[in-house]
Each structure stands twice: as C-alpha cells, then as structure tokens.
Design goal:
The complex is a heterotrimer of chains A (about 500), B (about 220) and C (about 250).
Chain A (H helix, E strand, L loop, with lengths): L10 H9 L2 H23 L4 H17 L1 H14 L3 E5 L2 H15 L3 E4 L3 H5 L2 H7 L3 E4 L2 H8 L16 H15 L11 H18 L2 E4 L3 E3 L4 E6 L3 H7 L3 E7 L3 E2 L5 H12 L7 E6 L9 E7 L3 H5 L15 H5 L1 H6 L10 H11 L5 H5 L9 H5 L6 H14 L1 E5 L2 E5 L6 H14 L2 H13 L13 H4 L12 H7 L12
Parallel strand pairs in A: 1-10, 2-3, 2-4, 4-7, 5-8, 7-10
Antiparallel strand pairs in A: 5-6, 6-9, 11-12
Chain B lengths: L2 H12 L10 H4 L13 H14 L3 E6 L3 H12 L3 E4 L14 E4 L6 H4 L4 E4 L3 E3 L4 E4 L16 E7 L4 E2 L2 H7 L6 E4 L4 E5 L2 E4 L6 E8 L9
Parallel strand pairs in B: 1-12, 2-3, 2-4, 4-7, 5-8, 7-12
Antiparallel strand pairs in B: 5-6, 6-9, 10-11
Chain C lengths: L1 E4 L3 H6 L1 H13 L3 E3 L9 H6 L2 H15 L4 E4 L2 H20 L5 H6 L6 E3 H8 L12 E4 L3 H7 L4 H7 L5 E3 L14 H4 L1 H17 L4 E4 L2 H14 L4 E4 H6 L8
Parallel strand pairs in C: 1-2, 1-3, 3-4, 5-6, 5-7, 7-8
Classes of the chains: A alpha/beta (about 500), B alpha/beta (about 220), C alpha/beta (about 250).
Chain lengths: ~500, ~220, ~250
C-alpha cells in the first residue's frame, strides 16, 4: 500500500486525537447521521432486499471460489473486445505498468476517476516520481489532493472536512493546480461544486490519458462498470484517447445478469439513492466512440493471500459501498485517518490487516478497533460478517499461526505486547475450569470490598479514567444461593 | 514466471479447500429476488418513471408524437440555445420546429468544440421506471457518448410506453453488453460535501426528459 | 418446568441482585429454578479477544454443567449469543482445523435450549405481563448482542410496557452501541468512553430515572459513565424491574 501510511501509530493512539477534536467529531457525526437515515429509507423501498443481499453474497462467493477460471475468461473477453490485459502481482508492478503505458503515449499528465485501488497502490506518488502529474477529478478526491490531505472515507474521502474548510482549501490551493477559485467563493455546496466544475473542465477537455478503477468486471462479456455521480467518471472514461483501468482481481462477476443485483444494492447502500446519476459500462473499445486504446491492469497486491484464509476471504466480497463506515459508532468517533489505510472503518479493519499482514503496529491494532456491535454486518449488502472476521484476526494477532504472505505459507509468531493479556486469559481459563478456584477468588473480592476504590491508578485508568468501577457486593450470588438453599429458606428469601 | 502465471497459481493454491463437486453457478446463486417491484399497469409504470426522474431533478415533459417537434423547440428556445448537437440517426422531424443551428456529431470534433454547443437532443435505448433512469447505448439516434456529456443541456426523448421497463433486471435484459452504455439518473450530482446531495457538477446540469406517446400532451413537471 | 439458571460469571460476582431477581421472577411464574454450582464462564471474553482455543475448555465445561437441563436461562444477551451463535462456530472451526467433530458434538446439545431471559418469558412461557410493578420513568437500551445477535426484537419492550406503574421513555439513538464491547472498553478506552458519554447524554435527555437493559456488562459501563457525569440516573437490569411487585417493590 501507499507509503503515506507507513509508520502510522496504533489505532487507539490515533483515535485519541480524533476523539478530542470537536470540529472533526461534529463533521463526522453530521455526515454519518445524515446518510444513515437516508440509506435506511432507500433500502426500505425495496421489498426483496434480503433476497438481493443473499444473491449478492452468493454470486461473490461463487466467483471467489472459482476465481482462476473467471479471471481467464475475463482476460479472453476483454482481449476479444479490443482491450489489452496486464497482470500485476503487487503495487510496484502495477505502478510500473501504468507509468510505462502513460509514457508510451508521450503524455505527462493524466485525469483520474476516483479509485480505491489506485490509492491503495499509491499510483499518484509513483507517477509523480516518473514526472507524470495525476489530476484527481472526483470532488472529494480533489479536496484531498488540493489540501495535501489523506482520504478518510471510501465514498466521501473528504468527509472529515466541512463546507467552510473546503472553501478555504479551494481559495488557497486551486491556483497552484490550474484555474483559481472564483472571486468571492462562499461555502454553499452548490458554489463549491461549481468551482470544482470550472477548475477541472480545462483538464478534462485537454486530457489524452484517463485512469480509472472499476466497480465490476463481467467475465462472460468483458464489460467494465464504473458507478459515479458527478460526471467526472464519464469525462475520464470517454474523452481521452487512452484509458487505463486498474482493478482488483476480486471485482469480477460471472455474468451480465449478475449486474441486476449489484446495480440495485450498491447505490442504495452507498449514496442512499435509487440509482446513482451516472453509470458507464464499456466492453473493450468502440470505433469512433470513446478511447481508442484500453488497458486493463488486474491487481493482486495481497488479494490472493486474503483468498487463502477460509474465514477472512469473505472480505473480498466487498463492493466498497461504505455503508459499514456510515453506521459504525467507532468510525464516527475515531474518524477515517485513525485506521491508517485507504480502507477505513469496519471493512478497513478487516481488509488492511489481510492485504498488508498483521506485522505492523497499526495493522495489529485494527482488529481491535471495534466493539463488535454488529451494525456493520447488518447493513452490508453482501453480508460480510465483519465481527466474525475481526475476531478471527484478533486470534491471528495473539496466537499467530499459519498465514499466506506474498503467495507463500508462513508461520506467524504471536504478536508482542500481548504477553500480560495472554497470561491473564490463561489464568482466567484455569480458574473458570475449576468452580472452586472461581469461588475462592470471588470471596477474596467480596471480603476486601471496602478497600476497593472507584478509580484505579496505572493501567486501570483505561477504565476508571472515565467510568466509576462497580461496587462489589458483600457476597457473590452462589454464596447466597447455597446459604439460603436457593432462596427457599425463610431468612434469605428471594426478593 | 509471468505475473499472470504467478497470480493464477496463487489463486489456485488459495482455493485448495474448494472441492471438485461444488455447486455450479446456476445452483449456487438463488434468483428469488423480484423481477420488478409492485404490480403496475403500463400507464402507472410510465407515471412512476416521470415521478422518479423528477425526484432526482430531471425536468420531465409529456407530449404526443405530433407535439414533439414543438415541445423540443420550446425547450430549446426557453433555454436560449443557439446551437444543438444532433446524433447521426436522430429523427429529423423532431427538430423541424426549432431554429437553433444543428451541429452534427462528427468523429473529428474536439472536446473543446463540443463545449461550445448549447444543447444536445437524443433518443434513448431504454428507461427504467423504478429508478428514474434513462439508458443510452450509442445507437444512431443517441450518438457518441461525449455529445451527451460535454454540453450543459441534454434533452432526451423516451418513447412511451415501448421504451419503458419497470426495473433494473428488465433493463439489463434489453441491453446489448457489447455497446457502450451510459445510465443516467437525473443531472450530475455530488454528495461529497457533508454527504448532502447537490445537483450540477461535471455532466449536463440540466437534463430534460420528454416522454412521448399517444395519450396526453400535458406537462406534468416542468 | 425445571430450568437451569446460567447467571454468568460477571453477574455471579458483581450483580447477585440480578440473579436473585431472576429466581424470584421465574419462581413467581411457576418455574422451578436450579443454579448448577459448577457453572463458571461461557468463554465469551476469551473468544472475542482472540483466545478461541482458551475458550474451548470453558465451552466444554458449560456443556457438561448444563447439558442435562430442559432449558437454560440467562439474564445476558451477550452470553446467550455466545452459546447460541458462537458455540456452533467454534465447533465448525475445530473441524476445519482437522480436529474432528468432538467439540461440535459436545456443544450441540446446549445450543438450542439456551434462552436469554426475555426470550424465555415471551417465547417459552408465553407471557408479556409478568405481574410486575415499578412506578418509575424508565428508558430502555437494547444491547447489541441481544438486538443483532439473538434478535430479541421488541420482546423486552413488550415486557416493560406491561409493567404496572412504569412509564417507558424512548431512548434517542437506542440501537447505537454503548461502547462497552468487552476488552474494547480497555483497549480503545477513548472511543469507548466517547460512545458511553453519548449514550448517557441521550438517556439523560429522556428525563427517565432509570436506564434499563438486559445485560449487566453494558450497564456496568453505562452506569460507571453516569456516575462520573453525575446525571442522577441509574442503571437497572430488566430482571430486577420484572421481579418487582407491589408487595415487594424493588427500590
């Protein structure tokens, strides 16, 4: 993944900053609560939602379980339709392929459709190093690029910015990149959108190379699909002479008919619309209409490692709708940057540690960035059981064991820093396996109850810094039960 | 080893648990979701299309075939359009009442030239009532994709009820995947500022849809 | 009918009043309650923190202790969900790891007969009016594992609505997690505390005296936050409300 994220602190530390940033908290709360209610309404309009969700899950699972076959079929269909297919095992290879393709056109600038995959591989930085400037054209990506910022949401990368901040970024930075912001620009969303239109228009009209990802690729027909709202996607996909699409290998659907499921579930889950304003579908090249050259770069970059994990592979069903981010109480308070990845929120907490491994501090902390409340699973349009995968990855962190890394099976050591916890868990298991030992412990706690403070020093502050400890009762239930014969003896009757 | 072979090899090793006798695609995927939502008459389906188009800020007009040329002329005049892009196979009768200058959809035109044109008039391939969507497939009466993208005003004519389907599944059945397809649901929009929807970004900021049929010539939403 | 009370280790140690309330309530409804003294912990904290293999002996122990009973009732949505949702998954995982069917077979008998308290009342006993009296204004927080794991739905609310004297106030953002999440409360204490504070603010906005839930772990977190924020509200387990009567009112 992008070097931008190397050296990120662990999640709790990064979240600490966000939790105490009142502006950020306000921005996130406002945006996520707005979209939550709208999504619920858009989904409720469709009476067969559960059946669509199940079909989407099954289509994706079936495809993943036969991915080799569908990849080969897709390659043949795209080639037959006039496209050229490239395979990239990792980010470096994908970046090199794209840079070479751009250089071969003689161009030194490209326009980009918003794409998670190209962010994941750090394409813009790699192109910059080759002297090629990449212009982001999605409004939110533009805000992030102009603000020299990092994305914090899958759908709305600038969700952490409010309208006033966006206006300030436009006023200050647009002139550096091209057409300056209009005089007297205010913070009304319509004016901000107009400023982006004017700024980007000259870039669209002169662009010779477009770069995109794709939401779906249909194996049987070789069709690629990009779902968008602003029209920047259409601009990049149809005006340039050369189109390069970098797409993760998990984005395949077997048949044309499969689109009927996802074109219903994605917009409603994502922007909470019946249908997004624009969807472009193209199959290779078309004479006289759109790019005359089309390259598809199929990207692995950790996906096959993820596929090798029988529990974790369900994360590859993800269609990047971001519904899980929008309902997540942790995301709402920690913000997207704390996740240290282009994939924030619940899905990021299970994707990043699988795509990148759990060896870095941030990746080892992500599986714990959840209260396991299950709201993400409930809204997921492809029914990814995110809590299940989170717990599975926690196990990988604390127990280690066999994983696949860069296609090789390796045995992971248990992560450092969990030794005390591991010892405590073992001790608790020992005690819980022996009711007598549990009881002795309970009595010790009860008898020393007057000594128990409401707050704790040291590591105990993690709890008692913000919460009182519960009062300890004078006897545990089991003592009462035995003493009163289950409450049947007159004196201690149940009450 | 090529990256192609490397990736395919990794995929196969990753799927070691997948058995030969797994259910086939047809068995694995239940299709028990609906082909369309609700039970509507043809007229009601067209009404729903109009309603959903308007809900996403497309301007909807309804007229009869005889009134079409006058309706289009009126829309272009109201807009003050001096030039209008015309796909190669558009029914020229549709434009016989307007005095806007006709610009042909030519392969040689540059994007900058298209940017100077005021409006574009096209037909469509199919329209989807449940989602308020029109779909273009680059047919002769719709033209190259860019002519409905660069000009700021798009007039799209939908023949009702023939070109109207209820649902997304029904639309896909009618479309040819080999053609370049553009699905349009209202004018361009963005939710990128505070997740609130604002219409009008890079695509045409005004989308006018004419539902042309034999029944009525009343404007429902305009 | 004779049922086993699976009180949970947290309730046994810290919330014996909830245990006594369950016994009183079920006895009043004609159910014979047993408390198997050998019970300890279902293993949820281990499992959810990533120590599945440490949780396995605890799950086997649970099955040994409770396997012979007709029904197992627990006043905890999350421990109930552990048995019902996660024990089968533990069995499957052991099988996938090449350790055979032994764990799955051992755990299978307890899975279908484990009930969260409100589920047992409404579904098995078929009652919503349990004859309770509780003259207080109460707001109800549906805890996540009960709501989304077990699918308790409106059962707790129906039970509360039938309580004489009780005024039920709608909790804004009711279905949002309170931020407890087991070891999450310690590992991500900043976020956990922020979620707790929001939950408590929402609860305080209802003007209720009592916040009620069906899980004392969540109530420990919410209650601890209430005390620190000096809201004047208090957390009460739903069993204690349902056990309260005009003759023997709970305070």
């Amino acid at each position: 993944m992008s070097g931008t994220y190397l050296g990120m602190p662990a999640f709790p530390k990064a979240a600490h900053e966000a939790v105490h940033d009142a502006t950020l908290r306000g921005n996130l709360r406002h945006a996520t609560h707005t979209i939550r209610a709208k999504r619920a309404k858009a989904v409720a309009e469709v009476s067969d939602w559960d059946a669509l969700r199940e079909a989407g899950k099954r289509i994706k699972d079936h495809t993943l379980r036969h991915l080799d076959r569908y990849l080969v079929q897709l390659e043949a269909s795209v080639t037959a339709a006039g496209g050229t297919v490239h395979w990239a095992a990792d980010a470096d290879e994908a970046n090199r392929i794209v840079a070479d393709l751009v250089r071969a056109t003689g161009e030194s600038e490209v326009v980009k459709v918003k794409s998670m995959t190209t962010q994941e591989i750090g394409l813009n930085e790699a192109l910059e190093a080759e002297g090629i400037r990449a212009y982001e054209t999605d409004l939110a990506e533009l805000i992030v690029q102009l603000g020299r910022d990092r994305p914090s949401h899958i759908l709305v990368p600038a969700i952490h910015r409010n309208r006033g901040e966006i206006r300030d970024i436009f006023r200050k930075e647009m002139s550096e990149w091209g057409r300056p912001a209009p005089e007297g620009l205010t913070d009304t969303p319509a004016e901000l959108a107009e400023a982006a239109r004017l700024h980007l228009r000259e870039k669209f009209l002169r662009a010779k190379v477009g770069i995109s990802g794709a939401n779906f690729m249909v194996a049987e027909t070789g069709t690629l699909v990009v779902v968008e709202s602003e029209g920047n996607g259409r601009m990049c996909l149809t005006l340039p002479e050369t189109l390069i699409s970098v797409v993760g290998i998990e984005k395949i659907l077997p048949t044309w008919q499969d689109l009927e499921v996802f074109l219903q579930t994605l917009p409603r889950s994502s922007t909470a619309e019946r249908m997004n304003p624009y969807t472009t579908m193209w199959t290779g090249t078309t004479d006289g209409d759109g790019p005359s050259t089309f390259h598809l770069v199929l990207l692995d970059n950790g996906r096959t490692d993820t596929l090798a994990d029988e529990v974790g592979r369900q994360a590859l069903r993800c269609i990047r709708c971001s519904a899980c981010l929008n309902v997540c109480p942790v995301y709402e308070r920690a913000g997207g940057h704390a996740y240290g990845s282009v994939y924030p929120g619940p899905i990021g907490a299970i994707l990043s540690p699988q795509l990148r491994g759990v060896t870095s501090e941030i990746d080892a902390s992500l599986p714990y960035a959840s209260s396991l409340c299950g709201a993400c699973y409930e809204v997921c349009p492809v029914a990814i059981d995110i809590p299940e995968v989170l717990v599975h990855l926690r196990e990988r962190v604390v127990e280690g064991g066999q994983v696949t890394s860069n296609g090789n099976k390796v045995v992971l050591k248990p992560a450092k820093g969990h030794a005390a916890e591991r010892a405590a868990m073992r001790a608790a298991r020992w005690a819980f396996s022996r009711p007598g030992a549990l009881r002795a412990g309970q009595r010790l706690v009860s008898r020393s109850r007057r000594l128990h403070p409401r707050s704790l020093p040291g590591p105990g502050k993690a709890w008692s810094g913000t919460r009182d400890l519960p009062a300890v009762p004078k006897e545990p239930f089991r003592d009462w039960w035995q003493r009163t014969n289950g409450g049947m003896d007159g004196k201690g009757a149940a009450k | 080893m090529s990256s192609r072979e490397r990736i395919l090899g990794r995929v196969r090793r990753a799927l070691a648990d997948v058995r030969q006798d797994e259910p086939s695609y047809d068995q694995a995927v239940p299709r028990d979701y609906l082909r369309e939502h609700g039970d509507r008459s043809v007229g009601e389906t067209v009404d729903l299309l109009a309603e959903n188009l308007a809900d996403y800020r497309a301007v909807v007009h309804r007229c009869t075939a005889e009134d079409l040329a006058a309706t289009i002329a009126g829309m272009l005049a109201a807009r003050g359009a001096k030039t209008v892009l015309v796909p190669r196979g558009l029914d020229l009768e549709w434009l016989q009442a307007t005095d806007a200058e006709r610009i042909a959809d030519r392969a040689e035109s540059t994007a900058h030239e298209l940017d100077q044109v005021d409006s574009v008039v096209t037909a469509c391939a199919v329209a989807v009532a449940e989602t308020g969507t029109i779909v273009l497939d680059g047919g002769p009466d719709q033209g190259r994709r860019r002519i409905t993208l660069v000009p700021d005003h798009h007039i799209c004519v939908v023949r009702v009820p023939d070109q109207v389907v209820s649902s997304v599944p029904q639309a896909l059945e009618r479309l040819d995947p080999g053609l370049p397809l553009t699905w349009i649901s209202g004018p361009s929009a963005t939710s990128d500022i505070e997740l609130d929807r604002v219409e009008g970004v890079h695509g045409p900021r005004t989308l006018e849809v004419v539902l042309v049929g034999g029944q009525s010539s009343a404007d429902v939403t305009s | 009918m004779r049922v086993a009370l699976f009180l949970t280790c947290v309730n046994d140690t810290l919330y014996p009043d909830t245990g006594r309330a369950v016994v009183k309530l079920l006895t009043r409804l004609g159910v014979e309650v047993d408390f198997p003294m050998a019970q300890t912990c279902c293993g949820q904290a281990h499992y959810n923190t990533g120590y599945r293999h440490e949780a396995e002996p605890l799950a086997r122990h649970f099955s040994d202790v409770f396997g012979e009973y007709e029904a197992i009732v627990t006043p905890s949505g999350s421990c109930g969900a552990m048995v019902r949702e996660l024990y089968p998954r533990m069995g499957e995982r052991a099988r996938a790891e090449g350790r055979g069917n032994s764990l799955a077979t051992t755990l299978a008998p307890v899975v279908p007969k484990t009930y969260e308290l409100t589920e047992f009342l409404v579904d098995v006993l078929g009652v919503t009016d349990v004859g309770a009296y509780y003259p207080h204004k109460v707001t109800y927080h549906p805890t996540c594992h009960g709501l989304r794991g077990l699918g308790l739905g409106d059962r707790p609310r129906r039970l509360l609505q039938a309580v004489k004297g009780l005024e039920l106030a709608e909790l804004p953002g009711a279905e949002e997690c309170c931020g407890f999440g087991g070891t999450f409360a310690l590992k991500n204490s900043d976020v956990s505390a922020a979620m707790g504070a929001d939950k408590v603010r929402n609860a305080a906005s209802t003007g209720a005296e009592v916040l009620c839930a069906a899980d004392n772990s969540c109530l420990m977190h919410i209650g601890g936050t209430m005390a620190r924020l000096s809201t004047g509200m208090r957390p009460v387990h739903i069993a204690e409300i349902l056990a309260s009567t005009e003759e023997e009112p709970a305070v």
